[in-house]
Records
---
Amino acid sequence: MPRIRQADVDEVKSRTNIGDIVGERVALKSAGVGSLKGLCPFHDEKSPSFHVRPQVGYYHCFGCGESGDVYSFLREMDHVSFTEAVERLAGRIGYTLHYEDGGSAPENSGRSRLYAANTAAAEFFRGQLLSAEAETGRKFLGERGFDAGAAAHFGVGYAPRGWEGMMKALTAQGFTRDELLAAGLVSQGQRGVYDRFRGRLVWPIRDVTGQTIGFGARKLYDDDQGPKYLNTPETIIYKKAQVLYGLDLAKRDISRGDPRRVVVVEGYTDVMACHLAGLTTAVATCGTAFGAEHIKVLRRVMGDDNASGEVVFTFDGDEAGQKAALRAFTEDDRFNAQTFVAVAPNGLDPCDLRLQRGDAAVRGLMDAKVPMFEFAIDRRLSGFDLATVEGQVGALRAAAPIVAEIRDRLLRPGYERVLARRLGMDPTEVRVEVERAGRAGANHAPARREPAEAVPAGSEPTAVAPVTLASLPRTADVALERGAMMGALQYGHQIDQATLARAFEVPFRHPALEAIREVVVAASDRTRVGWAMDAVNAVREPYRLLAGELLMSPFPARDEEGAARSTADLFRRMILRNLDREKNELLGAVQRVPADSDGGRALRMRLRDLDIERQRFTES
């Protein structure tokens, strides 16, 4: 495959704000001068340790150690090749790439082709919704309160009833049957290859960045022997356990709401109804139960680092809906946000509620929500006759484990009282049973894994632990070197380069910081965009992680101008330290050399020059 010219790779990166790219997947907020932070997309965490510095085009997680530039972020998140990452960003900013052989962009055969195929299919389906055959589909939408504008906003389309209408349209655009199979758009059977979606309304399923990765299709005709809803099968770009329908439309309002709220509904039309009614943070799963992977996605988009957010689950009032709510309850503790359940009057789903009672009734669901724990308790009690002593005791034993799961020491006593009121029992009796249930649950919890036995010395090579900021000694010398290096990596491009070189001309006293200094001094152009990131990557192990932390840690200043001034002052202090060290060495040498000798006179002249130079830096 032809290689993209390095100049173009650098140019695309310099024109791309990494904060915008990361911000499409992670809710970012200010973390000091020039720094943003959010929940890490590479590991599950409760509080944010993932930092992004748009000015240097770099990200770093202080929790798991992942770091890199905008290209590595896309490669990790979307599992694309380096070339595909560059081409995707170039297309985003409208930049024409050049290849080393002088040719035009090659035809990729990886993920980018699957994205392109799904995008082309979505356009085809949207166009078909206007056809005469699609009258049944338009009628279906109209009967549910969705006009042409609503269909266009959500990209709803129509798959014609024939066996190969979509396939012919896309192969005419250059897509191969193998690519369409890999994208899940066609199926292979005894009749050969044929359209997967036929005679159905089709909703495009997009990832958080807005790229179409699959479809959900609702049957319209009685002679359709398939399921009511048919989704794209698992592909290398469509993983249903990680996808939430409508998140691309909802993410902006989710991250900026006060409170930050996510409304989880059960179907595509429910998402449409909620958004049209004003609940623009509604999302839905795609043919699977709400699970742990969905939570990870939502927490990153919400910036779920405290209990101020809300996650509201709306479920049908039928038995299936109740079970779905309880399944969601089992994952409740993965959120920092408060979780609620909202069930509409008469068990209506949001789509039917909007049809029968209007937009205000859909918005009113938020006023009728109840805490998830309260819902789970009531659900557990519903199977008992609370008019009898036996029923009360059985209900207490059934519900006590739920209350025992509440880890918040302020919430749990309140729910003990709620349970006591529901049962008509003494709160003390309820508390005793809850504590017993808690002990029983602890006894049945999986045993902690015991640490592995020590490996005998010499039997296996010992990995050297990476050096981190937290492991540096707390001494004045190390603090100065650490601050100067942080300033050099983050704001060195704004400081006179001769001053930087003068500050860093003497080896540092701490070996880890010295390893980083060597790379910074060797950098050919410290004013070039991305130089600091290249320097970090060039630092030898086990010091590279420390270099990344120095580049990404919030700089102690109010603004960019203050950070540059502070960096300049740190460099000045480094120079003064170097001068003082040299002076002390010369004073020792003077004692060992005759005063009237050439060497003695040279030493005294150098001491005089040092004093003049020191005074200049002291007064600056």
Note: The mean pLDDT is 86.
---
Amino acid sequence: MLGSTHGTLTTDSRRARVIACGEQPSPAVHGRPAEAGDLDVSGRPLHADVPGLDRFFRPESVAVIGASDAEGRPNTGITRQLLAWAERVGARLHPVHPTRRSVFGIPCSPSVADLPEQVDLAVLLVSDPLPLIEELGAAKVKFAVAFASGFAETGEEGAAAQARLAESVERSGIRLLGPNTNLNAFERFREDLDGPAIALITQSGHQGRPVFALQELGIRLSHWAPTGNEADLETADFVSYFAEQPGIGAIACYIEGLKDGRSFLLAADRAARRGVPVVAVKVGRTETGARTAASHTGKLTGADQVVDAAMRQYGVIRVDTLDELQDTAALLARARAPRADGVVVYSISGGTGAHVADLAAEAGLRLPVLSEARQAELHQWIPGYLNVANPVDNGGHPVGDWRGRKIIDAILDDPEVGVLICPVTGPFPPLSDKLVRDLVDAAEHTDKLVCVVWGSPVGTEAAYRETLLGSSRVATFRTVGNCIAAVRAHLDHRRFVRGYRSPFDEAPRTPSPSFRKAQALMRPGQQLSEHAAKQLLRAYGIRVPREQLVTSAAAAVRAAGLVGYPVVMKASGARIAHKTDLGLVKVGLTSASQVRDAYRELTDIARYEGIPLDGVLVCQMVEAGVETVVGVCHDRLFGPTVTVGLGGVLVEVLRDAAVRVPPFGEEQARDMLSELRGRALLNGVRGRPPADVDALVEVVLRVQRMALELGDAIAELDINPLMVLPRGQGAVALDALAVCR
């Protein structure tokens, strides 16, 4: 074990440690919501702008450029669909074509400049939209849609063309959907459905079809935004907009790549503040998926672990499949806030109930044991030899008469029960028909969530098609797995929303005194030596060992006497990354002769390897503690990220680490620790005392402050090991590596 301390802090008070370090906890809490125009300490926005998309989805006037009514032409079918859509939304449609006098009997303008009125939306049925952008801007067109492909999805040349298109759009002042998009925004949405709606965002239009089909099951959809290559309008814009719209119960997304990680988090923050669930399939969990996504939309997918953590931070529910997206979004859109988080499994088969209860418990749902009084009540209608503690097994026969409804009402009346899950493994008329009718009736008279899993592979039964799907109060599923995942997402999201405090409200707006000290230590484009990296940590109040940098054997002996034996000696230089691998660390030196010999050996190795040194560090040795790692690295999408995990060699062997995207608060820092598989080591195992978790959390927050303030100036920071001492004694950074950009 390496390192030493400047002295041991004996207080267990987090505040006392903060004062002792001379800095405030990170990030600073400002106590007011972020507003438009607010910037964080690195100059990035703290508030999501909400684009005014009303006139995109409900325009008063539409221009179709390249309109056609010639049979057999692709543009003819598109024009026909746009005509029908314009009629539904009450918009005036103006065809534009240089050689046609009319299209489908409507007078045709030869160019954008000749349109009879200013239009809200222009649909571009041309192979190259770029030449039209300037004309559209001059005509004060608000929105445009470009279907053309051949841009960033095709490679470098296409990406360059898309960049030119994006620059032209920005200059023109219009907002563009696409390129490489489709007609999904102009689909026919059913208007005979009520209840909260799902708003849909997809980068690949076909992937939204299963969600769009939910309308056939009685679930309302309000919007569909097919974002395509996102040269301008992106997923984040639509999340921000949909989060503000009344009547939207959930936002469902199919995301191949994020255009800008920060924009997405700001949009997710807006949805979280308003309690609107965002459910997302995000492609790129594997290298294969990431490559495929990049070739399709030309987006950066980002490191998947960072994407996953960032989504969790802001309450975005990530699912893996389209059927999960469908089921989870539908439940979250329609379910009321839960009265309790207890789940009861109720079935007509003991085997089915036990199986589903096992899966639910494994997924983290809480299955409370019903009280003895409640069980006694249920046994009035259910034979005494059957289990009614949870899961509840009715044996089948009580379902067929008046007892069935009594049982359901008694379960839902329990104050610990917030969700009832009833798996119907297969149709078994008349019992299954009577069961679902009772469940539907009971759901109409309770504010608790009733879920039914209709397990029949057929799906044509009247009990399913008419009774279950005809109910707006029962959540119906076809698989147990999707039901359990959706229920968990529902309960987790409600808990998240209740306790949500926007990280952007707490982000520091102005640099700390530490930042000014750190700036003087940065060396652009260089890696800092261990000694210099530790000075950077000191600037932010992070404890480092008592140590001295020496340049002679005699000075090393004097330093060891001051530090106190036993000591550790390490070569220090800007080009050394892994000292142990090169033999540049000597541990447990207990005498002056050992120190002299170690100095000569370290400098000889460095000379032989051609490694320049700024000296040799002489440090006091510390052994009692848990080795952890805390660091900063840059993600392509989200910028600086903070990682914490088990340190030493364990970080490479076990890869047991958690990551967050700044800004975040103390609660998120503690959540990071709870995600570690080796979390028990911090609690104290095999007779070891509990580690000072508060001190570790404080270091994580201070490192986050560094990430926020230094931003792009620091490419990488690695504190490994950070020795977390027994409770009340703090944490010490025994080694550090820092790379400047």
Note: Residues 480-498 form the longest helix (19 residues).
---
Amino acid sequence: MAGAIAVAAGDAAVPTGEGSVPAGGHGRQAAGARTPEGGRVPEVAATAARTALRVAVIGGGPGGLYAAALLKRLDPAREITVWERNAPDDTFGFGVVLSDETLGGIEHADPVVYTALQDEFVRWDDIDIVHRGVRRTSGGHGFAALGRRRLLEILHERCHSLGVELRFRTEAPPVAELMRAYDLVVAADGVHSLTRGAYAEAFGPSVEEHRCRYIWLAADFAFDAFRFEIAETEHGVMQLHGYPYSRPSSDHHPSTRPAGPQNQCGASTVIVEMREEVWRAAGFAELDEQGSVERCAKIFADALGGRPLRSNKSAWTTFRTVVNDRWAHGNLVLLGDAAHTAHFSIGSGTKLAVEDALALAACLEEHADLAQALGAYEEERRPVVASTQRAARASLEWFENLDRYLDQPSHQFAFNLLTRSRRVTHDNLRLRDAHFTESVEREFGCPSGTPPMFTPFRLRGLTLRNRVVVSPMDMYSAVDGVPGDFHLVHLGARALGGAGLVMTEMVCVSAEGRITPGCAGLYTGRQAEAWRRITDFVHAQVPGTAIGVQLGHSGRKGSTKLMWEGMDEPLEDGNWPLVAASPIPYKPGNQTPRELSRAQLTDIREQFTAAAWRAARGGFDLLELHCAHGYLLSGFLSPLTNRRTDAYGGSLARRLRFPLEVFDAVRAVWPEERPMTVRISATDWADGGTTGDDAVEIARAFAAHGADAVDVSTGQVVADERPEYGRSYQTPYADRIRHETGLPVIAVGAISSWDDVNSLILAGRTDLCALARPHLYDPHWTLHAAAEQGYEGPGVVWPMPYRAGSRRPQTGRTDAPKPRLTLGT
């Protein structure tokens, strides 16, 4: 790999947030190992002889400078030059937060830099959340911060000591020229990367601008905790994010830190953020920099103790999320904000850039071929970055919609904020600060020693003893729509497993409304008798466990093969005709359904009514109307599948008409004391489809007609959907509907752990959690969740024949006693 390397570097995102690791230790790693967050620790000694490389660095941000220093340290024969258009003491922003995992990687890669950082860091454990004049404090979070200028100085000094040439106040040559002259160009030139823009066709960038304005300021005193303060003004909600990055000089070991009042009194980063419409209403659009600084100081005078704020070429901006399809093009590769950004509220910009540099340096050492090295770098970093970006988006959207949560009790509001990204959870927070977590639980109403998931919940005349729902799962195992022994064992086992509510699969209201030949139904007396056998078993063997039925009609997604024979693929023979809101096939090659006439709509409504009557006589405790996933009623709701021009198509109100008619007809025959829920797809994950705004209105409409709760799913409406998968990825839709309508919700979608369930319920994002795959993996998931949490209360009951298994079995011993005496040789 002879030749040269060029590195382009620039500003990273503003890190202000969670840095979320428990206090204590710095996560020491063996050289060459991965950090707990997926970062790399390169071997300090090269594993093989390397040809000397010339290195050029364009820009002087932390990621590029650190990459240059690492590459020079790993091979002193490299000739490395840094181009930076600003002066060495120019910097924008104030403080930088790094996690202990990142510091562990730095410690092993370059102890000199690590030691210098250690001498400068301000460390603290607490987060203060001020909400309507009440401050709640949570401890044990383990933050470390320093001034951005000081960080750059440390990296400048390290580069100089290693022999890296730094050229300040100098524009770098064009990237195309560098690509010809050097073996590798590493572009880390920030969120506004000119390099990325020049090679957009190669990298496939996507830049999304978000809904809040923010400004990065500083205060000349040190907060004693990470502080979130909420201001409810006449113009709307504003928030302050603040944290210390310099303590008073008397608190520090003497260093080469530049003199200045902020270093005598300490200093803090202060970010003020608000929705665009609030920003405009408050008049910030007309204010100059100093005017904005003074206005912010006045609004947050309590948090600042009446002290002023200062700026540094500070300007209001909107955050941009950067994603690239590819990170490498020939001998050009992206690093840091040029490749990806993650919202500042989880403190990730500089951290990600530094970890990129560590991984890139390691991959260049491990692979003699440049293309392989760059491929390995992207393969290693992309999943870590994607996970961080998912967490950052959740955090960003939480702050964008902050006004949604203002009426929550103070402890719950604080807990909701702390767990907003889903990286900090109920169990994790309990480890950090048990006292705070117990205060949240008491305020929520958890009896002592009772996890939130094992608190009861009432829907109409039905009280569920816990918040766990076995989600509807199609089994495709019925014969002529009749549930058999398989269904008895399947649903019976889940009921014995401790869930508060066990739901059937979608039970079809007619033979023509089946998805596959193996789908269960409730359109004959024989089917109703078979279901009664199952409900009787649940009520007799597991008293206190509820069983619910989900009624639906396949619509245009019917007449297909069993899932394991080809999901959504049409039958090769034995097809039945399909009907739908509009004559649009689910995907090419599938049958085109007939558009339903008025008379057919009446027939189908009566089929739902008859099935509901049979369900009531069959002993079900709850009925759910399936209006999701592209089946018949869902097909009326989505503008992508409803192209009707009559009274049942067009506006959302008209698209709602038939599903509401069905709901009313079913509610009329369903016993008054038994609850009815509705499952909806809150988004189609496709342009032009159902949106989050639509979902709120759909939920409101069903609530007005008597729905007791909404089961909030997403997607599966159109074949070309593009879901944004991730842990608990559908829960934000349930969260929004719950807070904007006041209707109880059931959250679904990649909720896989009891810790997730506790977190979502305690934060007030949902009332019930429905889990599918975890119950396929473990029919006794809820019982085991209780055992693992040491809970033995009334929220979950072990069947008497199973009580001997209520404690985890012993495993092979892994903690053999150590020798009491060791003799030297």
Note: Residues 1-38, 41-51, 252-263, 820-825 have pLDDT under 50 and may be disordered.
